[in-house]
Amino acid sequence: xxxxxxxxxxxxxxxxxxxxxxxxxxxxxxxxxxxxxxxxxxxxxxxxxxxxxxxxxxxxxxxxxxxxxxxxxxxxxxxxxxxxxxxxxxxxxxxxxxxxxxxxxxxxxxxxxxxxxxxxxxxxxxxxxxxxxxxxxxxxxxxxxxxxxxxxxxxxxxxxxxxxxxxxxxxxxxxxxxxxxxxxxxxxxxxxxxxxxxxxxxxxxxxxxxxxxxxxxxxxxxxxxxxxxxxxxxxxxxxxxxxxxxxxxxxxxxxxxxxxxxxxxxxxxxxxxxxxxxxxxxxxxxxxxxxxxxxxxxxxxxxxxxxxxxxxxxxxxxxxxxxxxxxxxxxxxxxxxxxxxxxxxxxxxxxxxxxxxxxxxxxxxxxxxxxxxxx
Length: 375
Hints:
Blueprint: H1 3-6, H2 12-38, E1 43-47, H3 62-71, H4 74-79, E2 80-85, H5 89-101, E3 113-115, H6 121-129, E4 135-139, H7 149-155, E5 162-167, H8 169-175, H9 182-189, H10 191-201, H11 206-221, E6 228-235, E7 241-249, H12 252-265, E8 269-270, E9 273-274, E10 277-278, H13 286-289, H14 294-305, E11 310-312, H15 313-320, H16 328-340, E12 345-347, E13 355-356, E14 359-360, E15 367-369
Helix pairs in contact: 2-3, 2-12, 6-7, 8-11, 9-10, 10-11, 14-16
């Protein structure tokens, strides 16, 4: 599919992507604004590969969804700086026209800045050498050209900056072993990691290659271990992986917010546990989900990891969920199950807590005591 064909109509995949980005933008902005106000800073949304704004079928893409959110909020109308860039001049002209058509956008204190730049090392230089206001970066290239670890690291350098990268894992899996694009792969993964990844993929089955690519990318983006990284998988109608959306934040709150957003956009849930992927083929796979029991797995994990300890539910959740597919509600369900089976002691106990239907609730401040192993 060419880039022109891509914008003919909005696919379900692109609709889910836009929903995730625009919902996180709103949550991120509301979390950042109080501190930004205190230091008299603006905040920014920066889209480096913005596209035309509207698909040929009339569907609005992410830039317009973000601006529509902004004009409906007093703080955002006053504080938001938006930068939309694309190397395709026709897309930029189309987006500018769509923005001009909406009179509500004129209420923004900072008019959208629309650029027609090629993304590459010059932009990475700029981000490295300038202190940025808090910004949410959306990096959604057609393929991978122009994207590098250096660019992403530079975007994440300053306080309050988060990044969402739409990562074409299918094309990159193919390109890794193509010597003609070796330089692009080296700047994307880092030269040593790209070399190791090529060696690992040599003769490996396709499914392993897909997992290896996303694992390597997540590790490359978090080389120093100081970021929270969360991938979301997109599959085609035939069930094969096409892209990953990779979220990066320096703050646990951003990770938790995005985790909840991605959970709600997931195609399937087993016992309320999200699979963190959009898969249009999942309707034919619901029978298999009946054999998946992740809440039991989580309950067993908690018994193992917290044996002999007493702590509040919210502290248990915060110390345990990073890097795991479980959301806050899953932890509460697992604890309710353990309490009903007399495998933990809760304070206050279930008899003194409110009920949700036939089940007791499990508030954040409920204390949980796990017996020591063997008791």
